[in-house]
Amino acid sequence: MTADPGTGLPTDPGAGPTGPEEEPTDAAASVEEGPPPTPLLAPRDGLPPVVETSTALVAYADALAAGTGPVAVDAERASGYRYGQSAYLVQLRRAGAGTGLIDPVPLPDLTAVQRAIGDAEWVLHAANQDLPCLAELGLVPTRLFDTELAARLAGLPRVGLGAVVESLLGWSLQKGHSAADWSTRPLPEDWLVYAALDVEVLVELRDALAEILEDQGKTEWARQEFAAILAAGPPAPKVDPWRKTSGMHGLRNRRQLGMLRALWQARDDLARRRDIAPGRVLPDAAIVSAVQADPKNEGALLELPVFRGRANRKLVNTWFGALVRGRELPEDQLPLHSRPGDGPPPVNRWGDRDPAAAARLKAARAGLAQVSEQWSVPVENVLSPDLVRRLMWSPPTPADADSVAAALRAAGAREWQVELTRGLLTEAIAAG
To answer: How confident is the model at residue 34 (pLDDT cuts 50, 70, 90)?
Structure first.
């Protein structure tokens, strides 16, 4: 296969990646040899203009509807810059339609695109990251192929998009703009090239991974995993998100937790109103240091390093007021040291609280590690670690293979996972 020296792409637009002469016996062996990767420097059809008007959107949606085969889909967000996780660019590519770069800022309703490709298979990498922001725009797939998840099931040693493209297709992607502020307008041309290349080879990658999964007998596993992603729907709202504040483990008592929660909520409210990432309004470290210092007046708060800046001097009323509210909360309204949950205790306490459960978990983990090695699938993909802990802490009754299988299904395990693990988990329960 010849390639365009400027892009490294096949000169025949219909050509796909060439595979090794012999079928690999495992995924790792299939990616260790070969020539150095060829950089992808430009889209094969040239950089398309950004779709930013209703007329252009309808025209591209018509082209997508007339296209054939799967649709490569990607989205760029402004994580770390804006408050939420909204998309600031949507990229699509389909045979016969070419690549489209859609600006959702002036075009927040993409139902025209949904109508055009709603029945097609969508190809995304790490779909869970992009599906929520795509859904905000009216884009929801009915069929899905997740190349990141497929790479995990295939046992590839690295599953990032660039690594998988390089190992399976022999091309290298430039990843310099992955953490950029995609809310920037106008978007620089080199950013747009980067965005277009992210969907340039996604369908070819899907085909290469599908072939590996078929050779390994895992096609049905992948089908079940993709169906589970679609069935899961939007993520549930996080409970007590303030507990994710970096450094809060250094706080000693519930009163400090109450102050931290109040200050976190004040920051979150301000960040939402201004559409700024909360960490840019006030870093987590500043929140924790303010709680630990427990300033008695606004002047004392302004003596702390981050609060000396001009922006926070203007907001000192907001920050100090939040600290006061947390400090003055009634005892029964203070947050607990840890959020009450319905799950088992931390694993490091199992030995003391329930030695039999600890023995069950040890046996289960050993069995799952063997299955992971046998099938070249990461152990966390063989079965959710949280599910394993819950099952070993509170085994079903009776603890036979059928009851274990029923418990796994009820907890959301896919059928391929049930068949692989029900026996070893039944044995692990017996070991306790």
So the answer is: low
Q: What is the mean pLDDT of the chain?
A: 91
Residues 6+ apart with CB under 8 A from 408: 383, 387, 391, 417, 418, 421, 422, 425
pLDDT category, 33, cuts 50, 70, 90? low
What gap in Å lies between CA 121 and CA 144, rounded to an integer?
A: 5
Is the pLDDT at 366 greater than 80, yes or no? yes
Rg of the chain (C-alpha set): 26
Task: Judge contact between 209 and 168, C-beta under 8 A.
Answer: yes
| Residues 6+ positions from 32 with CB-CB distance below 8 Å | none
d(CA 85, CA 67): 30
Give 307-356 pLDDT, tens digit per residue: 998 888 999 999 999 999 999 999 999 999 887 776 899 999 999 999 99
> Is residue 295 reached through a cis peptide bond, with omega within 30 degrees of 0 on the bond before it?
no
Residue 306 and residue 409: Cα distance in Å, rounded? 50
Residue 339 backbone dihedrals phi, psi, to 5 degrees: -70, 130
pTM of the model: 0.87
Domains parsed from the chain with CATH numbers: 28-232 (3.30.420.10), 241-333 (1.10.150.80), 347-431 (1.10.150.80)
